Amino acid sequence: MHLIENVPFFPQEEYQCGPASLAGVLNYYGLKISPEEIANEIYSKSARGTLTIDMVLFAQKIGMSAKQYSGSLDDIRKNIDNKNPVIVMIDTGIFFVQQYHFMVITGYNEEGIIVNSGKVQNKFMPENNFLNMWEKTKYWMLEIRS
Q1: What is the C-alpha to C-alpha distance for residues 121 and 136, in angstroms, rounded to an integer?
Q2: Does the pTM of the predicted model rise above 0.85?
Q3: Which CATH superfamily does the domain covering 12-145 fall into?
Q4: Among residues 77, 76, 85, 78, which one has the least CA distance to residue 4?
Q5: How far apart are CA 100 and CA 41, in angstroms?
Q6: Looking at the predicted structure, is the pLDDT value of residue 1 above 90?
Q7: CA 116, CA 28: separation in Å to the nearest integer?
């Protein structure tokens, strides 16, 4: 089991997975900021969520290095091994209904990944389930560094 200890966890409020995920990673790097403070800046009421570009721009605006790209399981593993939690976006929708969701990956093992997601900390997701949902977002991933 490869797990980053002490990644702060903020249970998400309704449609606030972006700010909750961003707050967890930013607090991990020592910034003291709440999901509510982030949501006030980047949450879109009309979209009922947060845009990926706004996640990147917010992190950069407060002085962090942030890059989004189409990632892989190897990218996730390398980041976790280097003690860098990453944010991914998955699509939990069914059929033609899209339901995008941000979560923080904090660990992995041979069978899957460990995430802080929604109201659950250190939740295990089997690799195949994760990949099916991640593929629908073209493997969107956000790396943040101090």
Answers
A1: 23
A2: yes
A3: Cysteine proteinases (3.90.70.10)
A4: 85
A5: 19
A6: yes
A7: 13
Residues 6+ apart with CB under 8 A from 18: 38, 39, 42, 43, 49, 50, 54, 55, 102
pLDDT, tens digit, for every residue of 114-124?
999 999 999 99
pLDDT digits (tens, 9 = 90+) for 60-93: 999 999 999 999 999 999 999 999 999 999 999 9
Report d(CA 78, CA 126) in Å as an integer. Answer: 18
Structure tokens at 58: 């917010």
Helix/strand/coil for 103: strand
Place of tokens 């699509």: 91
C-alpha–C-alpha distance, residues 6 and 48, integer Å: 29
